[in-house]
Amino acid sequence: xxxxxxxxxxxxxxxxxxxxxxxxxxxxxxxxxxxxxxxxxxxxxxxxxxxxxxxxxxxxxxxxxxxxxxxxxxxxxxxxxxxxxxxxxxxxxxxxxxxxxxxxxxxxxxxxxxxxxxxxxxxxxxxxxxxxxxxxxxxxxxxxxxxxxxxxxxxxxxxxxxxxxxxxxxxxxxxxxxxxxxxxxxxxxxxxxxxxxxxxxxxxxxxxxxxxxxxxxxxxxxxxxxxxxxxxxxxxxxxxxxxxxxx
Length: 247
What we know:
The protein is of the alpha+beta class.
């Protein structure tokens, strides 16, 4: 009789421990308040020049092969200027140019940077996209982590998005995005499983960016000679392309 109660007692103790470390700060369906919370989290994460490592895993559920595809990279960021790499693609963004280097085929693409004040959290995940089709959201503190959970309306592209930040520093630790697979991309055998795509971005090894860091400077990659763009000697093997007509 005593042994049969052990699982219940253990579960109760674990629940108490979890609740002792858990504190719900906010819960709402107000879009404006969500945008304000996202802006604050974004500002905390990007207000200091830093460098950090990135690991992004991509998994599709409901398939025979649910092995995660993984990308590795690094981000250097200072305000609106960014220099980041993921596998064989490197991107540089400054006030004048956006430069994308495809290392596999030695191609360099140039566009004019359009500063909108909107910096994505990762990839093209921006505040307006996060807030669109929102059902409800909540912010909680679990131990040393602040967690923002956003859930979405049925039929929306996103299922839920979770942001995890370090409480003391404000730096993002991870972003987990669960997306619904569009019906046209679902096989007949997958329909009952309602497959989803999970994209998890993990950020580690934060360091202050040195004041002398020059990775944002376009002169490292190309020069402009009487309207003609030419790669620098360090990138002599690259073919340069103008990807926007207003350069």
